[in-house]
């Protein structure tokens, strides 16, 4: 099929519009890798880190070095080889964790230490057994220690979305004063909603002391299927970094899916007044690489990178697509790395799509021949989920023999 060029979206025009840059912080190798079914060897992590750099991510979170010697080795190998992105490593606000990060990041062109501590009442009481004051002290200690090793320090308030907003603002202000550049606000358990997270970012920008020099970051989990929507709402509230993963891998139901967020900003860039530096044509190849490495396939109907994302089977949709692909597609498959849209021939397909495919296969189809083939196509499609090109060739030859 060679459908007419679409008139939506004018990606080049979007790119010309002055917009806010939203930095993409990829955590596939840390939050993603620590989820069931996604663990990777050091060489797989290295290979994937190269792919992330080629994709154009601003920051790659390579791992959590304190968790194992293998994690230190993998982070160190990435730090030595991968160029083009900032390289982050995660640490609790413990001196051992922070020192392990500093060791592992040695050799990175642009190292970042990412320190975190839980701030919500539930985590303070049941996980840490610490008071607000103690959490505040540890956050400051963590940031200050990390700053002895690197200039670029990110602070995360774990379970931020279930933290008292005024305490969250207090911890963020202290982390900023201690030398953090990026303040990450994780929705650790995927609990928030778009309007709530947008309001929280607006509140923090108004209440964190020194907010104008901070980069606010969103880190949304997908427990309610809202991670992408919540990340977009955080951008509306002023987030200028989004933490995400390829294919949305991550703890439990995963993290914000990078391919979805990037394409939402690309297709609706004017609405969000924001853009990323991601080379979107590498999204599908990078998604496939991750699936091959982890053995975890994406579902067929996954937005952007699923097999059905640009596939059309129903007669009405196929007919519309043949006239103008903008009727049923809001972006070009080529722009995200697919070769083309797919017209799937099955029992929902109509005569127009069949005629188009027969023509592509080199058959001259007059009305009588098309009628004959269409009847046998329909009866085959009742028995089979999908009718392939080889099936069609057999049908045409059979119809010709009968004529
Ligand atoms: O979900 C979370 O809170 C995290 C932090 C460690 C950033 O992954
Ligand atoms: Zn997380």
Would you give an account of this structure?
Mn(2+) binds at residues 31, 219, 221, 255. One of its GO terms (biological process) is L-leucine biosynthetic process. It comes from Lysobacter silvisoli. Its EC number is 2.3.3.13. The chain is of the alpha/beta class and 403 residues long. 47% of the residues lie in helices and 14% in strands. The chain contains 17 helices and twelve strands. It has helices spanning 11-16, 28-32, 42-55, 69-81, 95-104, 121-128, 132-149, 165-178, 194-207, 227-236, 258-267, 269-272, 283-294, 315-323, 351-360, 367-383, 389-402; strands spanning 20-21, 23-26, 59-63, 86-92, 111-118, 152-158, 182-187, 215-220, 241-244, 274-275, 311-312, 342-343. An eight-stranded parallel beta barrel has the order 2-3-4-5-6-7-8-9, surrounded by seven helices. Strands 1-10 form a two-stranded parallel sheet. Strand 7 (182-187), helix 9 (194-207) and strand 8 form a beta-alpha-beta unit. Helix 4 (69-81) runs parallel beside helix 5 (95-104), helix 7 runs parallel beside helix 8 and helix 10 crosses helix 11 (258-267). It is elongated. The model is unreliable at 1-8 (pLDDT under 50).
């Amino acid at each position: 099929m060679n459908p007419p060029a679409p008139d939506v979206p004018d990606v080049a025009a979007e790119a010309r519009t002055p917009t806010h840059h939203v930095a993409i912080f990829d955590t596939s190798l840390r939050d993603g890798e620590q989820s069931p079914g996604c663990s990777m060897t050091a060489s797989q992590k290295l290979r994937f880190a190269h792919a992330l750099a080629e994709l154009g991510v601003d920051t790659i979170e390579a791992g959590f070095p304190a968790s194992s010697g293998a994690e230190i080795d993998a982070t160190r190998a990435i730090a030595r080889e991968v160029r083009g992105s900032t390289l982050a490593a995660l640490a609790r606000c413990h001196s051992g964790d922070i020192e392990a990060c500093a060791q592992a990041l040695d050799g990175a062109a642009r190292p970042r230490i990412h320190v975190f501590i839980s701030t919500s009442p539930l985590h303070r009481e049941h996980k840490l057994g610490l008071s607000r004051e103690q959490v505040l002290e540890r956050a400051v200690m963590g940031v200050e220690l990390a700053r002895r090793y690197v200039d670029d320090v990110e602070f995360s308030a774990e379970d931020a979305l279930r933290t008292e907003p005024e305490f969250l603002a207090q911890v963020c202000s202290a982390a900023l004063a201690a030398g953090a550049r990026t303040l990450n606000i994780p929705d650790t358990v995927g609990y928030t909603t778009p309007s709530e997270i947008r309001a929280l970012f607006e509140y923090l920008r108004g209440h964190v002391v020194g907010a104008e020099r901070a980069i606010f970051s969103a880190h949304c989990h997908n427990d309610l299927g809202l991670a992408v929507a919540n990340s977009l709402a955080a951008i509306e509230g002023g987030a200028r970094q989004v933490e995400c993963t390829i294919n949305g891998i991550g703890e439990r139901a995963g993290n914000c899916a990078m391919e979805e967020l990037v394409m939402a900003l690309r297709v609706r860039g004017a609405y969000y007044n924001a853009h990323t530096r991601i080379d979107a044509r590498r999204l599908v190849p990078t998604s496939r690489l991750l699936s091959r490495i982890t053995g975890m396939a994406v579902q067929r109907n996954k937005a952007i990178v699923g097999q059905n994302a640009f596939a059309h089977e129903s007669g009405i949709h196929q007919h519309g697509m043949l006239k103008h692909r903008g009727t049923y597609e809001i972006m070009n498959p080529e722009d995200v790395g697919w070769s083309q849209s797919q017209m799937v021939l099955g029992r929902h397909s109509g005569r127009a799509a069949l005629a188009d495919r027969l023509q592509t296969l080199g058959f001259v189809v007059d009305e009588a021949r098309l009628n004959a083939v269409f009847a046998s196509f329909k009866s085959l499609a009742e028995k089979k989920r999908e009718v392939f090109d080889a099936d069609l060739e057999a049908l045409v030859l059979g119809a010709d023999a009968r004529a």
